[in-house]
Amino acid sequence: MTEEAGHVTEEAGHIEPKTIGKLRERFADQIVDVTVREGDDAVTVRRERIVEICTFLRDDPDLLFNYFIDVCGVDYSEFDPDMPRYGVIYHLYSLGHNHRIRLRVLLDEDDAKIDTVTGVWKGANWFEREAFDLYGIEFTGHPFLRRILTHHQFVGHALRKDYDHGKRQLCTEVWDLEFE
Amino acid sequence: MTSTAARTADLKLATRDEGETQILNFGPAQPIMHGALRLKLRLDGESIVASRMEIGYLHRCFEKMAEQQTWNTVIPFTDRLNYCSSVMNNLGWCKAIEDWMGIEVPARAQAIRVFFNEMHRIMDHCVCLGPGLVDLGALTNLWYLFTVREMAYTMIEHACGSRLTTSYLRIGGVAFDLHKTFWKEAEEFLTKGPKFIDDVRRLIERNRIFIERTRDVGAVSKEDAIAWGWTGPCARASGVNYDVRKARPYQGYDQLDFDVPLAENGDSYDRYWVRLEEITQSFRIMRQVLDHLPEGPIITHDRRVALPPKKETYGNIESLMNHFKLVFEGIQVPKGEWYSSTEAANGELGFFVVSDGSGNPYRVKVRPPCFAVAQAIEHIAVGHMVPDLTAIIGSLNIIAGELDR
Question: Which among A135, B142, B238, B348 could disulfide-bond with B225, CB atoms 3.0 to 4.6 Å apart, if both were Cys?
Fold first, then answer.
Protein backbone atom coordinates (compact mmCIF):
# COMPACT_ATOMS: atom_id res chain seq x y z
CA MET A 1 0.00 0.00 0.00
CA THR A 2 1.47 3.29 -1.03
CA GLU A 3 1.32 6.15 1.43
CA GLU A 4 1.39 8.81 -1.29
CA ALA A 5 -1.64 11.02 -1.20
CA GLY A 6 -3.88 10.83 -4.22
CA HIS A 7 -2.81 7.37 -5.40
CA VAL A 8 -5.80 6.18 -7.36
CA THR A 9 -6.80 2.74 -8.57
CA GLU A 10 -9.84 2.58 -10.77
CA GLU A 11 -11.40 -0.43 -12.35
CA ALA A 12 -11.91 -0.20 -16.06
CA GLY A 13 -15.15 1.34 -17.19
CA HIS A 14 -16.05 3.03 -13.92
CA ILE A 15 -16.11 6.79 -13.61
CA GLU A 16 -15.19 8.37 -10.31
CA PRO A 17 -18.43 9.42 -8.63
CA LYS A 18 -19.22 12.85 -7.21
CA THR A 19 -18.84 11.62 -3.64
CA ILE A 20 -15.17 10.86 -4.10
CA GLY A 21 -14.61 14.02 -6.14
CA LYS A 22 -15.98 16.18 -3.32
CA LEU A 23 -13.88 14.35 -0.78
CA ARG A 24 -10.78 14.74 -2.92
CA GLU A 25 -11.47 18.45 -3.36
CA ARG A 26 -11.67 19.06 0.37
CA PHE A 27 -9.26 16.51 1.84
CA ALA A 28 -6.75 15.87 -0.95
CA ASP A 29 -3.87 15.43 1.48
CA GLN A 30 -5.81 12.87 3.52
CA ILE A 31 -6.64 10.46 0.73
CA VAL A 32 -4.31 7.51 0.39
CA ASP A 33 -6.15 5.28 -2.05
CA VAL A 34 -9.38 5.18 -4.02
CA THR A 35 -11.16 2.16 -5.46
CA VAL A 36 -14.08 2.85 -7.73
CA ARG A 37 -16.60 0.10 -8.32
CA GLU A 38 -20.24 0.73 -9.08
CA GLY A 39 -22.16 0.94 -5.84
CA ASP A 40 -19.16 -0.08 -3.78
CA ASP A 41 -16.77 2.88 -3.84
CA ALA A 42 -14.00 2.79 -1.28
CA VAL A 43 -11.60 5.46 -0.09
CA THR A 44 -8.61 4.91 2.15
CA VAL A 45 -7.87 7.96 4.27
CA ARG A 46 -5.39 8.93 6.93
CA ARG A 47 -6.60 8.74 10.49
CA GLU A 48 -5.70 12.21 11.81
CA ARG A 49 -8.77 14.05 10.51
CA ILE A 50 -11.24 11.18 10.50
CA VAL A 51 -13.84 13.02 12.59
CA GLU A 52 -13.59 16.06 10.32
CA ILE A 53 -13.92 13.88 7.21
CA CYS A 54 -16.94 12.06 8.64
CA THR A 55 -18.61 15.32 9.62
CA PHE A 56 -18.07 16.66 6.10
CA LEU A 57 -19.50 13.47 4.59
CA ARG A 58 -22.55 13.78 6.81
CA ASP A 59 -23.23 17.49 6.33
CA ASP A 60 -22.28 18.40 2.78
CA PRO A 61 -25.55 18.79 0.82
CA ASP A 62 -24.18 16.81 -2.14
CA LEU A 63 -23.12 13.93 0.06
CA LEU A 64 -25.43 13.74 3.10
CA PHE A 65 -24.19 10.44 4.46
CA ASN A 66 -26.64 10.59 7.33
CA TYR A 67 -26.92 6.83 7.80
CA PHE A 68 -24.21 5.09 9.76
CA ILE A 69 -24.29 1.50 8.56
CA ASP A 70 -21.28 -0.20 10.08
CA VAL A 71 -17.74 0.04 11.37
CA CYS A 72 -15.51 -2.97 11.71
CA GLY A 73 -11.88 -3.96 12.06
CA VAL A 74 -9.71 -6.08 9.79
CA ASP A 75 -6.38 -7.73 10.61
CA TYR A 76 -4.28 -7.56 7.42
CA SER A 77 -1.24 -9.37 8.88
CA GLU A 78 -1.69 -12.41 6.63
CA PHE A 79 -3.19 -10.49 3.73
CA ASP A 80 -0.25 -8.38 2.69
CA PRO A 81 2.91 -8.16 4.82
CA ASP A 82 3.64 -4.65 3.50
CA MET A 83 0.38 -3.21 4.77
CA PRO A 84 -0.16 -1.77 8.23
CA ARG A 85 -1.66 -4.48 10.42
CA TYR A 86 -5.14 -3.15 11.16
CA GLY A 87 -7.86 -1.59 9.13
CA VAL A 88 -10.92 0.26 10.39
CA ILE A 89 -13.69 0.14 7.81
CA TYR A 90 -16.67 2.53 7.86
CA HIS A 91 -19.76 1.90 5.76
CA LEU A 92 -21.94 4.94 5.18
CA TYR A 93 -25.17 5.45 3.32
CA SER A 94 -27.07 8.52 2.22
CA LEU A 95 -30.82 8.23 2.49
CA GLY A 96 -31.50 11.31 0.37
CA HIS A 97 -29.10 10.53 -2.47
CA ASN A 98 -29.20 6.72 -2.23
CA HIS A 99 -25.44 6.37 -2.50
CA ARG A 100 -22.88 4.55 -0.41
CA ILE A 101 -19.23 4.92 0.46
CA ARG A 102 -16.71 2.85 2.32
CA LEU A 103 -13.95 4.57 4.26
CA ARG A 104 -10.87 2.68 5.26
CA VAL A 105 -8.22 3.77 7.73
CA LEU A 106 -5.05 1.72 8.15
CA LEU A 107 -3.39 1.56 11.56
CA ASP A 108 -0.01 0.26 12.61
CA GLU A 109 0.16 -2.58 15.09
CA ASP A 110 1.89 -0.59 17.82
CA ASP A 111 -0.40 2.42 17.49
CA ALA A 112 -3.89 1.04 16.87
CA LYS A 113 -5.81 4.14 17.93
CA ILE A 114 -8.33 6.31 16.16
CA ASP A 115 -10.76 9.01 17.23
CA THR A 116 -14.32 7.91 17.85
CA VAL A 117 -17.04 9.03 15.44
CA THR A 118 -19.83 8.59 18.00
CA GLY A 119 -20.10 12.39 18.04
CA VAL A 120 -20.95 12.35 14.34
CA TRP A 121 -23.32 9.37 14.30
CA LYS A 122 -24.41 8.04 17.68
CA GLY A 123 -25.14 4.72 15.97
CA ALA A 124 -21.37 4.09 15.85
CA ASN A 125 -21.35 3.40 19.59
CA TRP A 126 -21.72 -0.38 19.79
CA PHE A 127 -19.97 -1.00 16.47
CA GLU A 128 -16.83 0.70 17.79
CA ARG A 129 -17.07 -1.27 21.00
CA GLU A 130 -17.22 -4.44 18.95
CA ALA A 131 -14.10 -3.52 16.94
CA PHE A 132 -12.36 -2.68 20.22
CA ASP A 133 -13.40 -6.01 21.74
CA LEU A 134 -12.48 -8.25 18.81
CA TYR A 135 -9.38 -6.43 17.50
CA GLY A 136 -8.16 -4.27 20.36
CA ILE A 137 -8.44 -1.08 18.31
CA GLU A 138 -8.83 1.86 20.66
CA PHE A 139 -11.41 4.50 19.79
CA THR A 140 -10.22 7.63 21.55
CA GLY A 141 -13.00 9.61 23.19
CA HIS A 142 -15.60 6.83 23.04
CA PRO A 143 -18.10 7.36 25.89
CA PHE A 144 -18.14 3.74 27.11
CA LEU A 145 -15.39 1.69 25.50
CA ARG A 146 -15.91 -1.75 27.09
CA ARG A 147 -15.92 -5.25 25.69
CA ILE A 148 -19.29 -6.11 24.25
CA LEU A 149 -19.34 -9.66 22.86
CA THR A 150 -16.68 -11.42 24.91
CA HIS A 151 -16.72 -11.55 28.70
CA HIS A 152 -14.79 -9.36 31.11
CA GLN A 153 -12.20 -12.06 31.93
CA PHE A 154 -11.40 -12.70 28.26
CA VAL A 155 -7.72 -12.22 27.45
CA GLY A 156 -6.72 -11.16 23.92
CA HIS A 157 -8.81 -10.27 20.91
CA ALA A 158 -10.65 -13.08 19.19
CA LEU A 159 -10.66 -11.89 15.59
CA ARG A 160 -6.96 -11.18 15.35
CA LYS A 161 -5.26 -13.62 12.99
CA ASP A 162 -2.87 -14.87 15.67
CA TYR A 163 -5.73 -15.87 17.98
CA ASP A 164 -6.47 -19.62 17.78
CA HIS A 165 -10.05 -20.23 16.72
CA GLY A 166 -10.29 -23.36 18.88
CA LYS A 167 -9.20 -21.66 22.09
CA ARG A 168 -11.66 -21.55 24.97
CA GLN A 169 -11.73 -19.09 27.82
CA LEU A 170 -14.17 -19.66 30.64
CA CYS A 171 -15.85 -16.94 32.60
CA THR A 172 -15.71 -17.82 36.29
CA GLU A 173 -16.58 -14.59 38.07
CA VAL A 174 -19.53 -12.28 38.01
CA TRP A 175 -18.98 -8.69 37.01
CA ASP A 176 -20.87 -5.65 38.07
CA LEU A 177 -22.38 -3.85 35.13
CA GLU A 178 -21.56 -0.19 35.52
CA PHE A 179 -23.89 2.65 34.72
CA GLU A 180 -21.24 5.21 33.85
CA MET B 1 -55.57 -3.09 64.02
CA THR B 2 -53.85 -2.88 60.64
CA SER B 3 -53.17 -5.82 58.34
CA THR B 4 -49.66 -7.18 57.68
CA ALA B 5 -49.73 -5.87 54.10
CA ALA B 6 -50.64 -2.37 55.21
CA ARG B 7 -47.92 -2.39 57.85
CA THR B 8 -45.33 -3.46 55.26
CA ALA B 9 -46.47 -0.66 52.96
CA ASP B 10 -46.16 1.88 55.78
CA LEU B 11 -42.68 0.59 56.60
CA LYS B 12 -41.57 0.96 52.95
CA LEU B 13 -42.89 4.50 52.77
CA ALA B 14 -41.18 5.38 56.01
CA THR B 15 -37.75 4.13 54.93
CA ARG B 16 -37.86 5.49 51.36
CA ASP B 17 -36.19 8.83 50.90
CA GLU B 18 -37.30 11.24 48.24
CA GLY B 19 -35.36 10.46 45.06
CA GLU B 20 -34.13 7.09 46.31
CA THR B 21 -33.48 4.59 43.54
CA GLN B 22 -32.97 0.86 43.41
CA ILE B 23 -31.30 -1.55 41.02
CA LEU B 24 -33.21 -4.24 39.12
CA ASN B 25 -31.67 -6.88 36.88
CA PHE B 26 -34.02 -7.44 33.95
CA GLY B 27 -32.90 -10.68 32.30
CA PRO B 28 -31.16 -12.74 31.10
CA ALA B 29 -33.55 -15.23 32.71
CA GLN B 30 -36.57 -12.97 32.30
CA PRO B 31 -38.71 -14.64 29.56
CA ILE B 32 -38.83 -11.72 27.12
CA MET B 33 -35.04 -11.36 27.24
CA HIS B 34 -34.68 -14.78 25.55
CA GLY B 35 -32.00 -15.88 28.01
CA ALA B 36 -29.51 -13.87 26.00
CA LEU B 37 -29.92 -10.22 26.97
CA ARG B 38 -29.55 -8.46 30.27
CA LEU B 39 -30.65 -4.99 31.22
CA LYS B 40 -29.56 -3.46 34.46
CA LEU B 41 -32.11 -0.87 35.48
CA ARG B 42 -32.00 1.93 38.01
CA LEU B 43 -35.53 2.45 39.19
CA ASP B 44 -37.37 5.19 40.95
CA GLY B 45 -40.40 3.23 42.04
CA GLU B 46 -41.53 1.58 38.80
CA SER B 47 -39.96 4.22 36.58
CA ILE B 48 -36.66 3.62 34.82
CA VAL B 49 -34.16 6.41 35.40
CA ALA B 50 -31.10 4.71 33.91
CA SER B 51 -30.36 1.47 32.14
CA ARG B 52 -27.38 -0.42 30.82
CA MET B 53 -27.59 -3.32 28.42
CA GLU B 54 -25.33 -6.35 28.29
CA ILE B 55 -25.20 -8.75 25.34
CA GLY B 56 -22.86 -11.46 24.18
CA TYR B 57 -24.40 -14.46 25.93
CA LEU B 58 -24.87 -16.24 22.60
CA HIS B 59 -21.59 -15.16 20.98
CA ARG B 60 -20.28 -18.02 18.82
CA CYS B 61 -17.79 -15.98 16.83
CA PHE B 62 -19.45 -16.66 13.50
CA GLU B 63 -16.99 -14.37 11.78
CA LYS B 64 -13.93 -16.23 13.10
CA MET B 65 -15.41 -19.62 12.23
CA ALA B 66 -16.30 -18.44 8.72
CA GLU B 67 -12.57 -17.86 8.14
CA GLN B 68 -11.98 -21.58 8.73
CA GLN B 69 -14.57 -22.62 6.13
CA THR B 70 -14.77 -22.67 2.36
CA TRP B 71 -17.10 -20.12 0.76
CA ASN B 72 -19.90 -22.64 0.31
CA THR B 73 -19.62 -24.27 3.72
CA VAL B 74 -20.27 -20.92 5.40
CA ILE B 75 -23.91 -21.24 4.28
CA PRO B 76 -25.00 -23.53 7.18
CA PHE B 77 -23.37 -21.06 9.58
CA THR B 78 -25.45 -18.22 8.16
CA ASP B 79 -28.63 -20.20 8.96
CA ARG B 80 -27.85 -19.65 12.60
CA LEU B 81 -27.63 -15.88 12.44
CA ASN B 82 -31.31 -15.03 12.43
CA TYR B 83 -32.63 -18.53 13.02
CA CYS B 84 -36.22 -17.36 12.48
CA SER B 85 -35.51 -16.58 8.83
CA SER B 86 -32.57 -18.70 7.71
CA VAL B 87 -33.12 -18.37 3.94
CA MET B 88 -32.80 -14.60 4.23
CA ASN B 89 -29.33 -15.01 5.73
CA ASN B 90 -28.41 -17.60 3.08
CA LEU B 91 -29.45 -15.06 0.47
CA GLY B 92 -27.38 -12.27 1.99
CA TRP B 93 -24.27 -14.44 1.95
CA CYS B 94 -24.78 -15.95 -1.52
CA LYS B 95 -25.60 -12.55 -3.02
CA ALA B 96 -22.38 -11.12 -1.58
CA ILE B 97 -20.21 -13.68 -3.39
CA GLU B 98 -22.30 -13.50 -6.58
CA ASP B 99 -22.04 -9.71 -6.67
CA TRP B 100 -18.28 -9.80 -6.37
CA MET B 101 -17.72 -12.58 -8.89
CA GLY B 102 -20.37 -11.33 -11.32
CA ILE B 103 -22.36 -14.55 -11.20
CA GLU B 104 -25.70 -14.44 -12.95
CA VAL B 105 -28.37 -16.39 -11.12
CA PRO B 106 -30.94 -18.08 -13.42
CA ALA B 107 -34.41 -16.54 -13.46
CA ARG B 108 -36.09 -19.59 -11.95
CA ALA B 109 -33.61 -19.70 -9.07
CA GLN B 110 -34.18 -15.99 -8.45
CA ALA B 111 -37.94 -16.51 -8.35
CA ILE B 112 -37.63 -19.44 -5.94
CA ARG B 113 -35.29 -17.38 -3.77
CA VAL B 114 -37.72 -14.46 -3.65
CA PHE B 115 -40.62 -16.77 -2.85
CA PHE B 116 -38.84 -18.42 0.08
CA ASN B 117 -37.31 -15.14 1.15
CA GLU B 118 -40.72 -13.52 1.52
CA MET B 119 -42.08 -16.61 3.21
CA HIS B 120 -39.32 -16.29 5.79
CA ARG B 121 -40.11 -12.62 6.23
CA ILE B 122 -43.67 -13.64 7.12
CA MET B 123 -42.41 -16.30 9.51
CA ASP B 124 -39.99 -13.90 11.16
CA HIS B 125 -42.72 -11.31 11.67
CA CYS B 126 -45.02 -14.04 13.05
CA VAL B 127 -42.35 -14.87 15.64
CA CYS B 128 -42.03 -11.21 16.56
CA LEU B 129 -45.74 -10.48 16.69
CA GLY B 130 -47.03 -13.71 18.25
CA PRO B 131 -44.90 -13.97 21.41
CA GLY B 132 -44.75 -10.16 21.56
CA LEU B 133 -48.52 -10.04 21.90
CA VAL B 134 -48.43 -12.92 24.39
CA ASP B 135 -46.10 -10.82 26.53
CA LEU B 136 -48.81 -8.14 26.48
CA GLY B 137 -51.44 -10.67 27.52
CA ALA B 138 -53.00 -11.38 24.12
CA LEU B 139 -52.54 -15.15 23.82
CA THR B 140 -54.95 -16.06 21.00
CA ASN B 141 -52.92 -14.27 18.31
CA LEU B 142 -50.03 -16.65 18.88
CA TRP B 143 -52.08 -19.63 17.70
CA TYR B 144 -53.16 -17.86 14.52
CA LEU B 145 -49.69 -16.57 13.70
CA PHE B 146 -47.96 -19.82 14.50
CA THR B 147 -50.44 -21.70 12.32
CA VAL B 148 -49.19 -19.59 9.42
CA ARG B 149 -45.62 -20.28 10.48
CA GLU B 150 -46.27 -24.00 10.72
CA MET B 151 -47.70 -24.07 7.19
CA ALA B 152 -44.56 -22.32 5.96
CA TYR B 153 -42.29 -24.73 7.83
CA THR B 154 -44.07 -27.70 6.27
CA MET B 155 -43.40 -26.27 2.81
CA ILE B 156 -39.76 -25.67 3.64
CA GLU B 157 -39.39 -29.15 5.04
CA HIS B 158 -40.68 -30.58 1.77
CA ALA B 159 -38.43 -28.24 -0.23
CA CYS B 160 -35.12 -28.98 1.44
CA GLY B 161 -35.57 -31.60 4.16
CA SER B 162 -35.07 -29.38 7.18
CA ARG B 163 -37.18 -26.84 8.96
CA LEU B 164 -35.34 -24.32 11.08
CA THR B 165 -31.83 -24.25 9.63
CA THR B 166 -32.52 -24.79 5.98
CA SER B 167 -29.23 -24.19 4.09
CA TYR B 168 -31.47 -24.10 1.03
CA LEU B 169 -29.49 -21.67 -1.11
CA ARG B 170 -26.24 -22.24 -2.94
CA ILE B 171 -23.86 -19.71 -4.41
CA GLY B 172 -25.30 -19.30 -7.90
CA GLY B 173 -28.78 -20.69 -7.26
CA VAL B 174 -30.72 -22.98 -4.97
CA ALA B 175 -30.01 -26.52 -3.81
CA PHE B 176 -33.18 -28.26 -5.00
CA ASP B 177 -35.92 -27.58 -7.48
CA LEU B 178 -39.52 -27.30 -6.32
CA HIS B 179 -41.05 -30.59 -5.22
CA LYS B 180 -44.22 -32.12 -6.63
CA THR B 181 -46.53 -31.01 -3.81
CA PHE B 182 -45.22 -27.42 -3.90
CA TRP B 183 -48.04 -25.90 -5.97
CA LYS B 184 -50.76 -27.34 -3.80
CA GLU B 185 -49.06 -26.21 -0.59
CA ALA B 186 -48.23 -22.78 -1.98
CA GLU B 187 -51.83 -22.20 -3.06
CA GLU B 188 -53.08 -23.25 0.35
CA PHE B 189 -50.56 -21.01 2.06
CA LEU B 190 -51.47 -17.99 -0.08
CA THR B 191 -55.19 -18.61 0.41
CA LYS B 192 -55.36 -19.42 4.10
CA GLY B 193 -52.38 -17.38 5.35
CA PRO B 194 -53.84 -13.89 4.75
CA LYS B 195 -57.06 -14.93 6.49
CA PHE B 196 -55.20 -15.79 9.66
CA ILE B 197 -53.40 -12.45 9.48
CA ASP B 198 -56.76 -10.67 9.04
CA ASP B 199 -58.01 -12.49 12.14
CA VAL B 200 -55.06 -11.18 14.12
CA ARG B 201 -55.64 -7.69 12.76
CA ARG B 202 -59.27 -7.75 13.86
CA LEU B 203 -58.35 -9.18 17.25
CA ILE B 204 -56.01 -6.36 18.13
CA GLU B 205 -57.07 -3.30 16.15
CA ARG B 206 -59.67 -2.26 18.72
CA ASN B 207 -58.15 -4.03 21.69
CA ARG B 208 -57.89 -1.34 24.32
CA ILE B 209 -55.26 -3.18 26.36
CA PHE B 210 -53.01 -3.59 23.32
CA ILE B 211 -53.45 0.01 22.24
CA GLU B 212 -52.85 1.53 25.66
CA ARG B 213 -49.83 -0.62 26.33
CA THR B 214 -48.15 0.22 23.03
CA ARG B 215 -49.24 3.74 22.01
CA ASP B 216 -46.48 6.30 22.73
CA VAL B 217 -44.42 3.58 24.38
CA GLY B 218 -40.80 3.48 23.26
CA ALA B 219 -41.32 6.16 20.63
CA VAL B 220 -38.30 6.93 18.44
CA SER B 221 -38.30 9.94 16.13
CA LYS B 222 -37.27 9.72 12.48
CA GLU B 223 -34.08 11.67 13.18
CA ASP B 224 -33.14 9.37 16.06
CA ALA B 225 -33.90 6.24 14.06
CA ILE B 226 -31.52 7.43 11.33
CA ALA B 227 -28.89 8.53 13.84
CA TRP B 228 -28.93 5.13 15.52
CA GLY B 229 -28.57 3.41 12.15
CA TRP B 230 -31.95 1.71 12.42
CA THR B 231 -33.18 -0.05 9.32
CA GLY B 232 -36.10 -2.35 8.51
CA PRO B 233 -39.56 -2.31 10.08
CA CYS B 234 -38.37 -0.45 13.20
CA ALA B 235 -37.04 2.45 11.10
CA ARG B 236 -40.06 2.43 8.79
CA ALA B 237 -42.34 2.68 11.82
CA SER B 238 -40.52 5.95 12.56
CA GLY B 239 -41.16 7.19 9.04
CA VAL B 240 -37.79 6.35 7.46
CA ASN B 241 -38.59 5.37 3.90
CA TYR B 242 -35.72 2.98 3.34
CA ASP B 243 -35.96 -0.55 2.04
CA VAL B 244 -33.00 -2.22 0.31
CA ARG B 245 -35.42 -4.03 -2.02
CA LYS B 246 -36.48 -0.63 -3.40
CA ALA B 247 -33.25 1.36 -2.95
CA ARG B 248 -30.99 -1.25 -4.57
CA PRO B 249 -33.18 -3.95 -6.05
CA TYR B 250 -31.78 -7.46 -6.30
CA GLN B 251 -33.04 -10.89 -7.40
CA GLY B 252 -35.69 -9.26 -9.58
CA TYR B 253 -37.45 -7.28 -6.85
CA ASP B 254 -37.66 -4.34 -9.25
CA GLN B 255 -40.00 -6.43 -11.43
CA LEU B 256 -42.44 -6.95 -8.57
CA ASP B 257 -45.23 -4.70 -7.48
CA PHE B 258 -45.31 -4.09 -3.73
CA ASP B 259 -45.52 -1.23 -1.25
CA VAL B 260 -43.26 -0.31 1.66
CA PRO B 261 -45.48 0.26 4.72
CA LEU B 262 -44.60 3.38 6.68
CA ALA B 263 -45.79 4.87 9.96
CA GLU B 264 -45.10 8.16 11.71
CA ASN B 265 -44.94 7.92 15.47
CA GLY B 266 -42.24 5.28 15.80
CA ASP B 267 -43.79 3.83 18.95
CA SER B 268 -44.31 0.17 19.78
CA TYR B 269 -47.82 0.33 18.34
CA ASP B 270 -46.51 1.47 14.94
CA ARG B 271 -43.81 -1.16 14.93
CA TYR B 272 -46.39 -3.92 15.42
CA TRP B 273 -48.56 -2.49 12.63
CA VAL B 274 -45.74 -2.05 10.14
CA ARG B 275 -44.84 -5.70 10.58
CA LEU B 276 -48.44 -6.76 10.11
CA GLU B 277 -48.64 -4.71 6.91
CA GLU B 278 -45.34 -6.13 5.68
CA ILE B 279 -46.77 -9.63 5.99
CA THR B 280 -49.60 -8.58 3.67
CA GLN B 281 -47.09 -7.18 1.17
CA SER B 282 -45.04 -10.37 1.32
CA PHE B 283 -48.13 -12.41 0.46
CA ARG B 284 -48.64 -10.06 -2.47
CA ILE B 285 -45.08 -10.62 -3.70
CA MET B 286 -45.37 -14.39 -3.31
CA ARG B 287 -48.56 -14.41 -5.37
CA GLN B 288 -46.84 -12.55 -8.21
CA VAL B 289 -43.87 -14.92 -8.13
CA LEU B 290 -46.13 -17.95 -8.13
CA ASP B 291 -48.13 -16.66 -11.09
CA HIS B 292 -45.03 -16.00 -13.19
CA LEU B 293 -42.60 -18.69 -12.13
CA PRO B 294 -40.17 -19.18 -15.04
CA GLU B 295 -38.91 -22.56 -16.21
CA GLY B 296 -35.22 -23.32 -16.54
CA PRO B 297 -32.18 -24.25 -14.47
CA ILE B 298 -32.06 -23.69 -10.71
CA ILE B 299 -28.33 -23.01 -10.51
CA THR B 300 -25.87 -21.14 -12.68
CA HIS B 301 -23.83 -22.81 -15.41
CA ASP B 302 -20.78 -20.89 -14.18
CA ARG B 303 -18.37 -23.67 -13.29
CA ARG B 304 -16.34 -21.42 -11.00
CA VAL B 305 -19.03 -21.81 -8.35
CA ALA B 306 -21.50 -24.57 -9.28
CA LEU B 307 -20.91 -28.29 -9.56
CA PRO B 308 -21.39 -29.74 -13.04
CA PRO B 309 -24.46 -31.97 -13.54
CA LYS B 310 -23.85 -35.56 -12.45
CA LYS B 311 -24.27 -36.82 -16.01
CA GLU B 312 -21.36 -34.67 -17.16
CA THR B 313 -19.22 -35.54 -14.13
CA TYR B 314 -19.48 -39.21 -15.05
CA GLY B 315 -19.15 -38.52 -18.79
CA ASN B 316 -16.05 -36.36 -19.28
CA ILE B 317 -12.77 -35.73 -17.50
CA GLU B 318 -13.05 -31.90 -17.45
CA SER B 319 -16.29 -32.02 -15.53
CA LEU B 320 -14.88 -34.66 -13.19
CA MET B 321 -11.86 -32.47 -12.44
CA ASN B 322 -14.10 -29.45 -12.07
CA HIS B 323 -16.19 -31.38 -9.54
CA PHE B 324 -13.14 -32.53 -7.58
CA LYS B 325 -11.62 -29.07 -7.45
CA LEU B 326 -14.82 -27.44 -6.27
CA VAL B 327 -15.34 -30.06 -3.57
CA PHE B 328 -11.75 -30.24 -2.33
CA GLU B 329 -10.52 -26.68 -2.81
CA GLY B 330 -13.80 -24.80 -2.82
CA ILE B 331 -14.69 -21.72 -4.80
CA GLN B 332 -11.70 -19.51 -5.60
CA VAL B 333 -12.94 -15.98 -5.02
CA PRO B 334 -10.73 -13.23 -6.51
CA LYS B 335 -8.75 -11.01 -4.14
CA GLY B 336 -10.53 -7.90 -2.92
CA GLU B 337 -12.94 -6.25 -0.50
CA TRP B 338 -16.62 -5.59 -1.03
CA TYR B 339 -19.91 -5.02 0.72
CA SER B 340 -23.30 -6.38 -0.19
CA SER B 341 -26.62 -6.04 1.56
CA THR B 342 -30.16 -7.38 1.45
CA GLU B 343 -33.40 -6.46 3.17
CA ALA B 344 -33.79 -9.12 5.84
CA ALA B 345 -36.79 -9.30 8.15
CA ASN B 346 -35.20 -6.95 10.69
CA GLY B 347 -33.61 -4.55 8.22
CA GLU B 348 -30.40 -4.21 6.25
CA LEU B 349 -28.35 -7.38 6.53
CA GLY B 350 -24.90 -6.58 5.22
CA PHE B 351 -21.87 -8.74 4.53
CA PHE B 352 -18.50 -7.04 4.25
CA VAL B 353 -16.09 -9.61 2.88
CA VAL B 354 -12.33 -9.60 2.34
CA SER B 355 -10.84 -12.27 0.08
CA ASP B 356 -7.13 -13.00 -0.28
CA GLY B 357 -7.82 -15.07 -3.39
CA SER B 358 -7.79 -18.43 -1.61
CA GLY B 359 -10.59 -20.92 -1.03
CA ASN B 360 -11.51 -19.43 2.35
CA PRO B 361 -12.87 -16.02 3.29
CA TYR B 362 -10.08 -13.89 4.78
CA ARG B 363 -12.48 -11.75 6.78
CA VAL B 364 -16.26 -11.75 7.06
CA LYS B 365 -18.10 -9.00 8.85
CA VAL B 366 -21.83 -9.30 9.27
CA ARG B 367 -23.80 -6.12 9.68
CA PRO B 368 -26.73 -7.49 11.67
CA PRO B 369 -29.80 -5.22 11.55
CA CYS B 370 -30.80 -5.67 15.18
CA PHE B 371 -27.35 -4.70 16.51
CA ALA B 372 -28.07 -1.08 15.60
CA VAL B 373 -31.59 -1.38 17.00
CA ALA B 374 -30.54 -3.02 20.28
CA GLN B 375 -28.01 -0.34 21.17
CA ALA B 376 -30.81 2.19 21.49
CA ILE B 377 -32.85 0.18 24.01
CA GLU B 378 -30.98 1.43 27.05
CA HIS B 379 -31.70 4.99 25.93
CA ILE B 380 -35.36 4.66 24.95
CA ALA B 381 -36.15 2.66 28.11
CA VAL B 382 -35.41 5.68 30.30
CA GLY B 383 -38.57 7.46 31.41
CA HIS B 384 -40.78 4.43 30.93
CA MET B 385 -42.03 1.95 33.50
CA VAL B 386 -40.77 -1.61 33.87
CA PRO B 387 -43.82 -3.26 32.21
CA ASP B 388 -43.34 -0.94 29.21
CA LEU B 389 -40.07 -2.70 28.49
CA THR B 390 -42.11 -5.75 27.55
CA ALA B 391 -43.88 -3.83 24.81
CA ILE B 392 -40.70 -2.08 23.66
CA ILE B 393 -38.42 -5.10 23.42
CA GLY B 394 -41.18 -7.24 21.92
CA SER B 395 -41.75 -4.70 19.15
CA LEU B 396 -38.05 -4.35 18.34
CA ASN B 397 -37.59 -8.06 17.57
CA ILE B 398 -34.10 -8.60 18.96
CA ILE B 399 -32.72 -11.91 17.68
CA ALA B 400 -29.71 -12.88 19.75
CA GLY B 401 -28.31 -15.14 17.01
CA GLU B 402 -27.60 -12.21 14.73
CA LEU B 403 -27.03 -9.71 17.52
CA ASP B 404 -24.14 -11.67 19.03
CA ARG B 405 -23.22 -13.79 16.02
Answer: B238
